[in-house]
Write a structure and sequence with these properties.
Blueprint lengths: L13 E5 L4 H12 L3 E6 L4 H11 L4 E4 L5 H15 L4 E4 L14 H29 L2 E6 L3 H4 L5 H21 L4 E8 L5 H6 L3 H10 L8 H12 L10 E4 L8
Parallel strand pairs: 1-2, 1-4, 2-3, 4-5, 5-6, 6-7
Helix pairs in contact: 1-9, 3-4, 4-6
InterPro entries: KR_dom (IPR057326), NAD(P)-bd_dom_sf (IPR036291), SDR_fam (IPR002347)
Organism: Litoreibacter arenae DSM 19593
Protein name: Oxidoreductase, short chain dehydrogenase/reductase family
């Protein structure tokens, strides 16, 4: 993990990350701990080994809480447990998602509900669970991972892109509702980040070449690029930024 900048106000901050034990989420946990943050994260699979690794690396241990984020009572109880351990959560990173490929014609009601539950519903109820603590702490930052997939109008996962678009709408409404409490809510829309999962399932030389050709910057995206963006949004460096969608994709989509 490369430490490209130091955000002093994150030292000692209580941070909660969904899906923080693998993929981009693991890099987020690592990067936030490198800033001195007290990180709690949930992961459906056992992330004990990862927590051990982080403890050896940083000298402190992240609080790992095993949780399927579609189980809303469990998710919210984990946020309470994190608050009890580290103080009120002042940075929430809704990172966990599932972009399982599917066609419109094969989607049934059960799949639709599952996709919304993991990609949108859990985000809302995690936000709901941290609001009171952030308000009492005098403010906070919520970062909702979205994707450029819906901006591009990508086919191949319509339920996922629908949820991505919904995340942006939710982000704007919550930013407006809780701005008076100094709670900032922003979305982060990555491009094609080359995680191990992406490389195993979908990256081919031809597909990658075609995608990079669409980027303004002719380089591939790494998890570190998302870490740097999250640190900025979590920190008071971005204190007057809320209700926005920060796109980090090498310049595939152009916003504004």
């Amino acid at each position: 993990m490369t430490k490209t900048a130091t955000f002093h106000d994150l030292d000692g901050a209580s941070v909660f990350v969904t899906g923080g034990g693998s993929g981009i989420g693991a890099s987020l946990t690592d990067g936030l701990m490198a800033q001195g943050a007290k990180v709690a994260f949930v992961q459906r699979s056992d992330a004990t080994d990862f927590a051990d690794e982080m403890e050896q690396k940083h000298g402190t241990r992240p609080l790992f809480l095993q949780c399927d984020i579609t189980d809303i009572p469990r998710l919210q109880s984990c946020i309470k447990e994190a608050s009890d351990a580290h103080g009120p959560v002042t940075v929430l990173v809704n990172n966990a998602a599932n972009d399982k490929r599917h066609s419109t014609e094969e989607v049934d009601e059960a799949f639709w509900d599952w996709s919304m539950a993991i990609n949108l519903k859990a985000y809302f109820f995690a936000c709901q669970a941290v609001i009171d603590g952030m308000r009492k702490a005098g403010g906070g930052s919520i970062i909702n991972f979205s994707s450029i997939s819906y901006m591009m109008g990508n086919a191949g996962y319509p339920a996922y892109t629908t949820a991505n678009s919904g995340i942006n709408g939710m982000t704007r409404s919550l930013a407006r509702e809780f701005g008076p409490d100094k709670i900032r809510v922003n979305a982060l829309a990555p491009g094609w980040v080359l995680t191990d999962k992406q490389k195993e399932l979908w990256v081919t030389p031809e597909a990658l070449e075609a995608h990079v050709a669409r980027q303004c910057l002719k380089d591939t995206l790494a998890p570190q690029d998302m870490v740097d963006a999250v640190l900025f949004l979590a920190s008071n460096t971005s204190r007057m930024m809320t209700g926005q969608a920060l796109v980090v994709d090498g310049g595939v989509v152009v916003t504004g």
